[in-house]
Give the backbone structure.
Amino acid sequence: MTLTHDLFLITSFDIDRSGLASILDTSMRYKLHTLRPNRINSSLFEGTNSSLVGMIDAELFDADPIAVASELSEFRPGIPLLFLARSDSPQLFLRGLQCGVLGVVQKTDSPGEILRKLDAAVRKQNLWNKEELRRYQACFSTGPSIPGLETPFTLRESDVLSKLATGLTNRRIAEELGISYETVKEHVQHILRKVGVTDRTQAAVWAVRNRLF
């Protein structure tokens, strides 16, 4: 049997491959190709269906998901792209929207919802939730800085906040700083408490508005 679509999954996690493979095998509509970020080249698309989708893990260890999206688009112009994520990453999602990513498949989505999103991406339909996008954009709207504000961050908290302000996920921060994922989560919680906000997006906005980095 010839499968209808090709799905190129760019991920650092084998569990993502196995989980998606079981869903796609059941649907019998998609052929899964799993790649590491540094293995992308034009030959990968030889012999594939004209109908294909690229799915990029939002928490890659060794690459910027946006750079991977650009690379896929360079080798296969017009390829529909989706993020694969386990949580919201507002900075990354807004950057993805700007470079043509059509939406996000959450790792908690049901098999039926994942297939619905893949089918919509094949048709090049925009999957972004408008309400969520408005909330993300509102977080990054310009606002007044607070001159002379002093917040007693430790050196490591400052390191984490600087990475957080550029849109990196906790896993990417852990990788870049050479510390554990759980340690990063703990530092982020301390930062939120010191700044007086409730989530990492607000902390990133606070850092940018106060020109800390």
Summary: The chain has two domains: 5-136, 155-209. The longest helix spans residues 181-195. The chain has a mean pLDDT of 82. The first strand starts at residue 5 and ends at 10.
